[in-house]
Amino acid sequence: MSLIEWKKEFETGIPDVDVEHEALIGLINSLYDSMNSDRSKDSILQFLGDIHTKTAAHFALEEKIMREEEYAHYGEHKNEHEQLLDDINDIMDEYEFNDSFDENKLKQVLASWFSEHFKNQDALFHKAL
After folding, report:
1. What is the pTM of this model?
2. Is the pLDDT of residue 56 over 80?
3. Calculated CA dihedral for residues 115, 52, 29, 39, nearest 10 degrees
4. Helices in 3-122 by DSSP H: which ranges?
């Protein structure tokens, strides 16, 4: 079972970017599958931490390119990255301190974020390149 299904609407129209984004979703789904085989608290926290780490690494690469290219909308784009990472942190904190892990909330946060961010911010950035 997948946490996020790749959808045509996620495509930016830039093949290399779409492949990287699809791979990130694939990684999130792989982590999710491995977490489902072990539903312990440690496993779920590891899953969420891995999603945060891998997503942050992808964002760092995008942001490095934006700085090098002096991208005009860097601040806005970076803020969206930080908001998603904050949302994932909030889900981690909620689970760690309240033992409440809402898979549907995580799925909704990630799917809606990927859909909107890919279509809007990433498409604008890559057009500017």
Report:
1. 0.82
2. yes
3. -130
4. 15-37, 41-68, 74-98, 103-117
Copy the structure tokens of residue 11: 């495509």
Yes or no: say if 43 and 35 are a contact pair by the CB < 8 Å rule: yes
Residue 99, phi-psi category: left (phi > 0), alpha (psi -120 to 50), beta (remainder): left
12-128: what CATH class? mainly alpha
HSE of 49, CA atoms in CB hemisphere, 13 A: 7
- CB 97: neighbour CB atoms within 10 A? 8
Rounded to the nearest 5 degrees, what angle is found at the Cα of 58, between the Cα atoms of 55 and 39? Answer: 25
- C-alpha to C-alpha distance for 2 and 80, rounded to whole angstroms: 24
